[in-house]
Amino acid sequence: MLTDTNPYGSRTLVVEGDEASSVAYLCDPHGVVHGAVWLANHIPAPETVDLRRLNAGLPPVMPRGGTRHPAGRPPLDPARLEVLWFEEGDGVALFEDGELLAVIPGWADMEHGLPGYARDAIGETPFAWPLEEAMEGLGPRVARARAYWAWRRTEGAWESYLRYVLAHLDATVGPAGRYWDVSEGGLPTVGVTERPAVPGRDYAVLSTVGMSCQRMPQVEQYIDRPDAYARVELAFATRGDPRDAARLFLWLARYPWRSVTWLGHGHTARWYHDRAGFPVPGGYSGVLMLTGLGHLPDPSGLVFGGDSVRWLWLVPVTDAELGTAGHDLDGLAWRVARRLPV
Q1: How many CB atoms lie within 10 A of CB 178?
Q2: Which helix H or strand E contains 172, and what residues bound it?
């Protein structure tokens, strides 16, 4: 009855129902379900789970003990439903007549018994957890998502953000040179700014501008303080042609939102084409991402949306080095950090 894809094209909310019940699914572009939540029964609730419906692939009917409306409620009207995506794009809220009906967060995992949250659910069941009991955490998330997208749609919002970040880089890295858009026509909007060599620095610094405009997905599942890690920009230092190195950002700048993941210190990425096509010479096969390279300019200090923005330097690494990153990150970082500028 309803299908809605997030602004990054990486997740789709599908609301389905029949005469018995309605359910919402959070799917990826390949149709794999990453989260699901029961929404409502439209018939009197059974005493136990109807396994025949489940085995037939039909939306589940919540047992009597798990629903606030054991007698059932009228079917959902798609015209009365509203979808609100989280800023990260990995979670979604569903409203009915302006009232929060359900939330499927990014950490929903059916295989581990973590479905979404539903307004009409009672107790923690495999089909839904009660929304009311989770509002202390989810309420601010939903409010922040609404405020973010309202700001993002405001005329001049992106231009104001862009000026803010560019001014910060002017002050911390040096005067600007060329600028390239690497958004490929979609969200997130991301550009690459060149900071040419200056007296006392014989290399150019490239930085993305726009990744930090939205939080990365999944960070809160791995980091206790997502406010310090959820917003990043990527940087690269080169003595070569900056236009070649800029291809690294065309490759990685939108990756977190397309793949619903995050980038941080110590993460690696393997070049997705033939190694001979790697943007910088040297026989490299990918990059290691590092923060705090003291011999390079320090662009830290930017804050956006109440969160600190971290710059991750892309350090090119060989195939063998990619293989050792998970076993000896500190040693590898020490060996390759001085590789920049390339």
Answers
A1: 14
A2: helix 157-172
